[in-house]
DNA sequence: CGGAGGACGTTATACGTAAAACCTAGGCGG
DNA sequence: CCGCCTAGGTTTTACGTATAACGTCCTCCG
């Protein structure tokens, strides 16, 4: 409270405590065992408290050569899902003294399309969702440690990948629906080029291919309730035997399917079973509640961060996909008599 | 591609281009008009490109004394709303060469309850939502430029405030409902101590107080669909004449009210009108679609960031609350005969 | 033809921190 | 009583950048 209006530095603290700047750094950095007496240490801490001293992060980062900050690249934050991923990642990060800065989607943020420029921070590593595909090339340029989320393990050029076990999720959905007796399926697919959605399509086709007498129609829509509604409406209005079950890539698409069904006068689950994927708040808000595959977004973020920390520390990242599980609610039932 | 594995510095670029480090800084910082010839400038740029040079942000921040990074403090990201706020803030920030780092909610992130420690970055300013109230004391400690979102202008100790015109939103809701003929109201309130929710309660009471023959019952619930459902159910089960309209502090609460209504066998909007506030994706997913007050989250974030930029540059921030507007959908109708 | 600028750079320095290298008593074993 | 160790510090340096202050030539005008 003496120098003026500029923030106090470690030198100011040193002066106030009557020691050298080095001593301050030692004490505040907890490196003083056997180097500084307990009494002076306390004096330093006292002075720091009184001045309201906060170390200058920029200077520390420069000195240390790292920033304990990582970048999380995600698509636009239009659902709770990636908010959950962020929360999980940030939690683990905080436990290890790291910060997480977000780079949400190349579109919509502004002219600076360069994640590294726009995330104004010096970075130690990157976690990137494969859905933010166009940011990838920029990222690969730098040689920062990289963890890919929801990404093809084979196509990630050696980057560590952390994935949800979507394949198993789709398996659970199809087992459930086939077990109920459904045979004619509509796949309401997300209109996004991303590995995680390819997996859904592939596994669904593979599963149904194993069962004779099944049919599978696919229709694509952007992830928006209204787009999903219109796509579903036209698909259902087509001639021929109507599908009895709609498998959606995502809960929002499922909400669109609900609206289409209402417009067409079809009742869920009596005339039509619908499944989602995500388990957003939306899933239990609609009526009937949605049978869907629950993805643990926070765990996903945690695992991503843990993997990145492992890479940064030269350890081997944990192997294995993150389990997901079907939660059966009121939107699925046996098909009515054909 | 020569020095080894460590990142190239401006000195490496200088050496490669055969100039001094200062020249590199001049050229890359666009301060070279009349100081460096176009040919050498191009040589420098070329060298920088070849080496894949990126300036060390930590060093730059140290030198410059600022970081062009601001902190956005928000409650947990459990709806799209604050994701929108972030997106808007980040867009404006990017246009001005700023980065935004997020500090979501003191709970849930980890042991580091200090926003400044956990947001590992050196900061130039802070935008804070009043809903993250417990972080505030920590923030007030530092004397960073501060913009408060959704906060009592009178109680913000001189910090700049940017607010949505919630008062007008509630006015629109009550006008709409009163116009339809409703007289008995239930206020489903968010169980959060925050100015923005107090405003809702206050304005609603004031508005109805002006109209003789109206009644207002209030019930509080945490912002979760299930909590809202049970709270609503018990409120509606109480004896006495049943409310004909439920005004909810938020769309999620409204979704809970829907479920309560279904359980009690009440039809919306025939037996019960319901209004929300936010206009989340949820609002159009439920049936009937929700009459609600649309809050432009991105604009909110933009205005917050613009205000902070104004403060940082010593300009006067733009005055005036952000307009909101009622969007009437299927969840409101005249009350059935008393 | 002398010197006053421009054009084109370079040298030197400071930002605040962490930590290696160095200093100085005092105590103590041999 | 010498040498060495240890406790308790201090001096010094480096991190990479931006920029103020300082040199050169070369040109051109009076």
UniProtKB/TrEMBL annotation, chains A, B:
<keyword id="KW-0805">Transcription regulation</keyword>
<dbReference type="InterPro" id="IPR028082">
    <property type="entry name" value="Peripla_BP_I"/>
</dbReference>
<dbReference type="InterPro" id="IPR046335">
    <property type="entry name" value="LacI/GalR-like_sensor"/>
</dbReference>
<dbReference type="InterPro" id="IPR000843">
    <property type="entry name" value="HTH_LacI"/>
</dbReference>
<dbReference type="InterPro" id="IPR010982">
    <property type="entry name" value="Lambda_DNA-bd_dom_sf"/>
</dbReference>
<dbReference type="Pfam" id="PF00356">
    <property type="entry name" value="LacI"/>
</dbReference>
<dbReference type="GO" id="GO:0000976">
    <property type="term" value="F:transcription cis-regulatory region binding"/>
</dbReference>
<dbReference type="GO" id="GO:0003700">
    <property type="term" value="F:DNA-binding transcription factor activity"/>
</dbReference>
<feature type="domain" description="HTH lacI-type">
    <location>
        <begin position="8"/>
        <end position="64"/>
    </location>
</feature>
<keyword id="KW-0238">DNA-binding</keyword>
<protein>
    <submittedName>
        <fullName>LacI family transcriptional regulator</fullName>
    </submittedName>
</protein>
<dbReference type="Pfam" id="PF13377">
    <property type="entry name" value="Peripla_BP_3"/>
</dbReference>
<keyword id="KW-0804">Transcription</keyword>
């Amino acid at each position: 409270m003496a120098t003026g209006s500029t923030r106090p530095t470690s030198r100011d603290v040193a002066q106030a405590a009557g020691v050298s700047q080095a001593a301050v750094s030692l004490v505040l950095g907890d490196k003083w065992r056997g180097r500084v007496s307990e009494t002076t240490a306390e004096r330093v801490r006292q002075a720091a408290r009184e001045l309201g001293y906060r170390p200058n992060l920029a200077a520390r980062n420069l000195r240390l050569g790292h920033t304990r900050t990582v970048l999380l690249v995600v698509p636009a934050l239009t659902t709770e899902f990636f908010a959950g991923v962020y929360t999980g990642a940030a939690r683990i990060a905080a436990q290890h003294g790291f910060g997480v800065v977000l780079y949400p989607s190349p579109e919509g943020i502004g002219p600076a399309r360069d994640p590294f420029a726009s995330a104004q921070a010096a970075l130690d590593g990157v976690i990137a969702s494969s859905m933010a595909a166009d940011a990838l090339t920029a990222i690969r340029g730098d040689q920062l440690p990289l963890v890919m989320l929801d990404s093809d393990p084979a196509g990630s050029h050696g980057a560590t990948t952390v994935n949800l076990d979507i394949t198993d999720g789709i398996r659970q959905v199809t087992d459930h629906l086939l077990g109920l007796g459904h045979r004619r399926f509509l796949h309401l697919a997300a209109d996004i080029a991303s590995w995680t959605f390819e997996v859904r399509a592939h596994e669904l086709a593979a599963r149904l291919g194993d069962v004779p007498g099944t049919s599978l129609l696919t229709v694509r829509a952007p992830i928006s309730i209204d787009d999903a509604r219109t796509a579903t409406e036209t698909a259902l209005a087509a001639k021929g035997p109507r599908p009895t079950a709609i498998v959606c890539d995502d809960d929002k698409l499922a909400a669109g399917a609900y609206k289409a069904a209402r417009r067409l006068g079809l009742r869920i689950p009596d005339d039509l079973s619908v499944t989602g994927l995500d388990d957003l708040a939306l899933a239990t808000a609609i009526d009937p509640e949605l049978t869907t595959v629950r993805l643990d977004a926070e765990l996903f973020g945690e695992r991503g961060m843990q993997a990145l920390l492992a890479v940064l520390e030269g350890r081997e990242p944990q192997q294995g996909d993150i389990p997901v599980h079907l939660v059966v609610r009121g939107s699925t039932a046996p098909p009515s008599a054909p």
